[in-house]
UniProtKB/TrEMBL annotation:
It comes from the Bacteria. It comes from Merismopedia glauca CCAP 1448/3. The keyword Signal applies. InterPro entries: Peptidoglycan-bd-like (IPR002477), PGBD-like_sf (IPR036365), PGBDSf (IPR036366). Keywords: Signal. SUPFAM superfamilies: PGBD-like. Residues 167-223 form the Peptidoglycan binding-like domain. This is Peptidoglycan binding-like domain-containing protein. Residues 1-24 form the signal peptide.
């Protein structure tokens, strides 16, 4: 009888998107910090869920500081975010260049976002699909298929912006441009991580651009011009 009660409790907590203290576990991590010093805080995620709503989806991430609630539209772009009992987040920097939450059919997710003008957070782990969310996101036929690397690169190319959390050949070229300009000294990579973000911010500051750490068309154009002069 005891085991049946625990199973029922686990199911109810999962449906509500609440942490299950009866079976504590780690499904991911949160990393936060300033642009100049990232990360300064690393916390474990004990539960992550996503569920459909009439406007899109609601994603709940339970970690040490509480439960973070993200309201996503149908394109998986975050419309609002708050921590239960602590109020809403400042998403003005994020909305300057909104980027969809990355979710794969196997439940792995990746969120990289600005949470203030000088701070960012990344959320990575595995979530649980609730209420038909998997079918809503991927469709019935494609629910078990992961997006290819080509399709991910195409999505980046479509909006032309490169930012924290991006991967692929375009990021690799950006890093090589930054290296040629003297702003990147780490190894070869195709991941837009905190090191790349700091390099972009430094370049933007020196060139009088908006130093937001997002490599938009103007930033990329200036870097390409410098590379063509210096590195051929």
């Amino acid at each position: 009888m005891k085991f049946k009660s625990l199973a029922l409790l686990s199911f109810l907590l999962l449906e509500l998107g609440l942490p299950n203290t009866a079976h504590s576990r780690t499904v991911g991590k949160v990393e936060c910090g300033s642009i100049e010093n990232f990360p300064t805080s690393v916390r474990k995620i004990s539960l992550a869920t996503i569920k459909p709503t009439s406007q899109g989806f609601v994603m709940r991430i339970t970690e040490k500081n509480g439960t973070d609630i993200f309201q996503l539209n149908r394109k998986l772009i975050i419309e609002s975010a708050r921590t239960e009992g602590r109020g809403s987040w400042n998403l003005v920097p994020y909305h300057y260049d909104p980027y969809p939450v990355k979710i794969k059919p196997n439940g792995s997710f990746d969120i990289a976002m600005m949470v203030s003008t000088r701070s960012s957070c990344s959320f990575q782990g595995n979530l649980t699909f609730l209420g038909g969310a998997k079918e809503r996101i991927f469709g019935t036929r494609n629910a078990s298929r992961s997006p290819s690397r080509h399709s991910q690169n195409t999505q980046v190319a479509r909006n032309g912006f490169l930012r924290l959390g991006d991967r692929g050949s375009q990021v690799y070229r950006l890093i090589e441009d930054l290296r040629c300009a003297g702003y990147y000294r780490a190894g070869n990579d195709s991941y837009f991580g905190p090191v790349t973000q700091r390099a972009v911010i430094a370049f933007q500051s020196d060139r009088g651009l908006l130093a937001d750490g997002i490599a938009g068309s103007q930033t990329q154009k200036l870097l390409r011009q410098i590379r063509s002069r210096r590195c051929g």
